Give the backbone structure.
Amino acid sequence: MTLPSLGLITEQAIAGAISTGTHGSGKCSLSHYIAEVRIACYDVTTGEPIIRTISDGVELKAARCSLGCLGVIVSVGLWARPQYQVEEYFRRHATLAEVLAAEEFYPLQQFYVVPWKWDFYGQHRREVTGPRSWLASLYRLYFWLTFDIGMHLVIMTLVQLLRSRRGVLYFYRYLMPWTVIHGWKVVDKSYDMLIMEHELFRHSEIEIFVKRSQLTTTIPFVIELLRHFGGDTHALSLPTQERLQTLGMLDSLERCFGIYTHHYPICVRRVLPDDTLISMASSDDEDYYAISIISYARPNERQGFIRFAEHLARTTAEIFQARPHWGKYCPIDAETVSNLYPNLAEFRVLCSRADPSGRFRNQWVSRLLFGEK
Ligand SMILES: Cc1cc2nc3c(=O)[nH]c(=O)nc-3n(C[C@H](O)[C@H](O)[C@H](O)COP(=O)(O)OP(=O)(O)OC[C@H]3O[C@@H](n4cnc5c(N)ncnc54)[C@H](O)[C@@H]3O)c2cc1C
């Protein structure tokens, strides 16, 4: 058996994964599939500890992704499904439109924007019924050596040891394309195909979620921002400069010129609408796309990335209504959160009813979700 939706890793606890809207590509986030949650909390009249079972209605939508606000989750119920086979192959695409078009045939696909080359690599995936490929073990070994280990070691050497902007640019423009074997179609079981060993090397990450209708304008905007932070004088187009001026962010952005060279492929994943109140893909209509930006800068050299992430979160929330992942770097304020999540008021009411004194909330959640100082 396997879970209905898998992120890049499976090291998380289920409670942690659902409480932050953890997702993979081509399905809803794991939160969406939760059918029952048992929560340890206090009886509001007697103050005695109790365990509540929530299995329907709007409370279930809240409990599916609650950032711990309803109490301590002690178990969850969800329908697992039999393990299935996934076919995968990589292909380069010159344009965003081209890689998105492949989604029709490869609904589980994710794709990467390659920094400093700004082209697209589709990791095309679909569910199939065929048997495991006889070269699947070789493919696993290739993937592990090349991407899970090799690419990360090269990036960390360039970023942490050599601190070489030129090296990063050279790697993505001339070397990285040779590491990808195009068109090698392999079928393997879903659990092996859908995950990678992303937990091996410590990194920082911000991931923003935009609706499908905003995707084709958000990605070029993110690229412009990355090029500007990376020291490209012609990065910001006139319309972008005008937008930033209107937001009052152009001056602050100009001061960030050249302070951060991005050095990791930008992963883009489709997340189907979640039936929840506040997971990032919570929606009654469109799919969301998660755009993930990862940095391997050493913890004491992260300032450039942090400044980038703050500008990214603020500008894309204003312009594209982008929601940053709750379980990653999430530099937004309470006012922005209430603009981005139409069901937040309902979520607050349910939390206040279940936990009137807010003892299950930490400072961050109190500030961001409940607007407390
Ligand atoms: C290497 C790596 C890869 C990742 N890949 C992905 C990915 O592919 N897709 C994706 O969406 N995310 C991904 N994430 C993010 C990750 O899924 C979330 O941060 C998740 O919350 C981590 O789970 P955890 O069990 O470590 O949670 P924790 O960090 O322990 O908890 C996160 C939050 O969940 C709540 N929580 C945890 N346990 C309980 C409980 N028992 N009761 C009530 N509330 C609780 C709390 O609010 C807590 O702050 C990745 C993270 C890492 C480090």
